[in-house]
UniProtKB/TrEMBL annotation, chain B:
Keyword Nucleotide-binding: yes
Highest taxon, organism lineage: Bacteria
Name under which the protein is recorded: ABC transporter ATP-binding protein
Annotated Gene3D superfamilies: P-loop containing nucleotide triphosphate hydrolases
InterPro entries: AAA+_ATPase, ABC_SmlMolc_Importer, ABC_transporter-like_ATP-bd, ABC_transporter-like_CS, Mo/tungstate-bd_C_term_dom, P-loop_NTPase, Transp-assoc_OB_typ2
Nucleotide-binding found in the keyword field: yes
GO cellular component, one term: ATP-binding cassette (ABC) transporter complex
The organism of origin for this protein: Azospirillum lipoferum
Family: Belongs to the ABC transporter superfamily.
UniProt GO MF annotations: ABC-type transporter activity; ATP binding; ATP hydrolysis activity
């Protein structure tokens, strides 16, 4: 017995020990992704971060000091929040009831295809469509005037509401598809169980669906919010880019390509990222108060 | 919220139909269930047993017919208004609630005051012997424990009717036996009425007061376990009740109650269960009832395989025409040996082609 043991005294090979920790040949497939992330995200991010601390005036925090002392600049944070927050919330609130209806439908694929279209069209095309639709000679004003509800065309565009509508249009499909995937991920037998136990539709939503959905909805909110917060094209095309919809990305754009101050632009981009991060962390922090396990009725 | 009455005398299914597009899952079910009965709906998968249960629970609307609780029509009520308890095949425990909250859910929905709720949840926890697990989430429990929570959650509201949809199918063999006794014990101690869906004849036989055998969306036979076990009315019910041997033969005469059936030149006696229009008939025999005769009467077979089964041996023989017969033997047999097999006339069921 002991002789046999001694013969194998070296123990498992390096390969076996790595495999025991989940590292094997297939792990190498991760390298291209790592390279992409390093090259296209980490490096530019660090470059920008360093650049933001090298302002034209030579001081370390010059850019940040300038940003937070100029209301025309720091105001953009709140102008963007004023757009992104309600838009994301509204999209989520519309998406939930529709997702609950759609989960019971059979032709989901057709609907999802229709909904993906606005994503592929992009914000510019949507903004262009809005320019025609909501313009003085567009359908919107013509119908309201023909119905006698308006005496002269209203200008929805070139202001807060233009960007708001554009963001809802382009953001909704994304929010909806994410929400739908979370809603359909909940085992339907849980609803049946709640029903047989005497819970009406409202109670089933409140007691079963909502608690199980909150973590997913929080992630949906974060992703949708980040998208809305970085709005640029529609803020320019259908908004009022000098005042009401002077969002933070416009400030960054102007710094970079009108003042040619890349250092300042980087600083604004960093501030923008920090604000997004703050909101995301806050939302995900609240998420941890809820149950986050699998939304199924039982294990296998 | 109006929840059904705590008690009733009879549950009537009157011509209950259910169609899915072109497919008819239930072809008009007629059944009366007495209060306190334990009814098993037994059948192969796709026979409509789960559909029937879901129709009774209100999770599926019926396409036709009525479900009556005494003289109160319930098929028009929503599931939350019927007040029946249901145990799901996958348990359907709320994953975000503790065991205690899961069990208390139904009481809370009924607006039971907190002190009483706690008392009843404690009693239910004790009934399924899960007191020590009350604070855990379902994901932290084993399959058998989850099953017990599901049962406790359904019975704590003291429903007039408890519906169980293959509750033991996800458990291993040993646990299945334990839970079977548990379910029977709980049913007896509460005196509730239970409808239990299963495809396992052993489960149905051991649990039920009456068994309803379903096939292709229609009732094939209703009877006590003893009736169904000894005298299935149809060949497919017999098939389900463990009559594994089915041999084609020719009716050659009757002697009192007994039919004489010619099987490949050997005449055997059996009980006539379904009439035949011509002479063709099928004999159904359980493997345990078919044994080597040790004489020169009986169906001659060549032994193909023999398995040791602890108390005896299980043999597989092949007749001259190639029909496989499963039989029991108290002593070992050599592969390739020639034996003759026979069974008591009372243990052989003869089914004509008129089904």
């Amino acid at each position: 017995m002991s002789a046999v043991m001694e013969g194998r005294a070296e123990g498992p090979t390096l390969r076996q020990r790595l495999a025991a920790r989940g590292i094997d040949g297939a792990t190498l497939l991760v390298l291209p992704c790592v390279a992409l992330i390093l090259g296209l995200f980490i490096y530019p991010f660090l470059y920008g971060l360093v650049l933001s601390f090298q302002p034209k005036d030579g001081s370390l925090f010059g850019n940040y000091a300038r940003f937070f002392s100029d209301p025309f600049l720091y105001g953009t944070i709140f102008k963007t929040l004023r757009l992104a927050f309600p838009v994301t919330l509204l999209n989520l609130l519309i998406a939930i009831p529709i997702a609950f209806r759609v989960r019971l439908m059979r032709r989901q694929r057709l609907l999802t295809t229709l909904l993906v279209l606005p994503i592929t069209l992009g914000t510019v095309l949507v903004a262009e469509g809005m320019l025609f639709y909501f313009g003085p000679q567009g359908w919107f004003n013509r119908i309201l005037m023909a119905a006698g509800l308006l005496s002269s065309p209203v200008s929805v565009l070139n202001g807060y509401w233009g960007v708001f509508i554009s963001l809802v249009l382009t953001g909704f499909p994304f929010t909806f598809l994410l929400t739908l995937s979370y809603v359909t991920g909940i085992d339907p037998s849980l609803e049946n169980a709640a029903a047989t136990l005497g819970a009406g539709p409202a109670a089933r939503f409140r007691e079963v669906f909502l608690p199980l959905l909150v973590p997913g909805l929080a992630i949906t909110f974060c992703l949708s919010f980040v998208q809305a917060y970085s709005v640029l094209p529609s803020a320019v095309l259908v908004g009022d880019p000098a005042n009401a919809t002077r969002v933070i990305s416009i400030a960054a754009y102007q710094a970079a390509f009108e003042e040619y101050d890349y250092s300042m632009a980087s600083a604004i981009a960093m501030i923008m990222g920090a604000v997004q991060l703050l909101v995301v962390v806050a939302v995900l922090g609240c998420r941890s108060l809820f149950y986050r396990g699998p939304a199924a009725g039982a294990k296998g | 919220m109006t929840v059904g009455p705590a008690t009733f005398k009879q549950l009537h299914l009157q011509g209950v139909r259910r169609e899915f597009d072109a497919f008819t899952a239930l072809k008009g079910l007629d059944l009366t269930i007495e209060r306190g009965e334990f009814i098993a709906l037994l059948g192969p998968s796709g026979c409509g047993k789960t559909t029937a249960l879901n129709c009774i629970a209100g999770l599926l609307p019926v396409s036709g017919g009525r479900i009556m609780l005494d003289d109160r029509r319930v098929d028009v009520l929503r599931p939350e208004e019927r007040g029946f308890g249901m145990v799901f095949q996958n348990y359907a425990l709320f994953p975000h609630m503790t065991v205690r909250k899961n069990i208390g859910f139904g009481l809370r929905m009924r607006g039971v005051p907190k002190p009483e709720l706690e008392k009843r949840v404690d009693a239910a926890l004790a009934a399924v012997r899960l007191e020590s697990q009350a604070g855990k989430l379902p994901g932290q429990l084993s399959g058998g424990q989850q099953q017990r929570v599901a049962i406790a959650r359904a019975i704590v509201v003291e429903p007039p009717l408890v519906l169980m949809d293959e509750p033991l199918s996800n458990l291993d063999a040993k646990l299945r036996l334990e839970m079977r006794q548990e379910i029977r014990r709980i049913h007896q101690s509460l005196g509730s009425t239970t409808i239990y869906v299963t495809h396992d004849q052993e489960e149905a036989l051991s649990l039920a007061d009456r068994i309803v055998v379903l096939r292709d969306g229609a009732i094939r036979q209703v009877g006590t376990p003893a009736e169904l076990y000894a005298l299935p009315a149809h060949l497919d019910v017999a098939d389900f009740m463990g009559f594994r041997n089915r041999v084609n033969g020719e009716l050659v005469g009757m002697e009192g109650e007994d039919a004489l059936l010619d099987i490949e030149g050997t005449v055997i006696r059996g009980r006539m269960r379904a009439a035949s229009s011509g002479r063709a008939a099928v004999a159904a025999i359980r493997p345990d009832d078919l044994e080597p005769t040790g004489t020169d009467s009986g169906i001659p077979v060549r032994v193909e395989a023999v398995e040791y089964r602890g108390r005896g041996f299980h043999g597989v023989g092949v007749t001259a025409s190639g029909t496989e017969l499963h039989f029991a033997s108290p002593y070992p047999l050599q592969r390739g040996a020639a034996v003759r097999l026979g069974a008591d006339a009372g243990r052989v069921l003869v089914f004509g082609d008129a089904r």
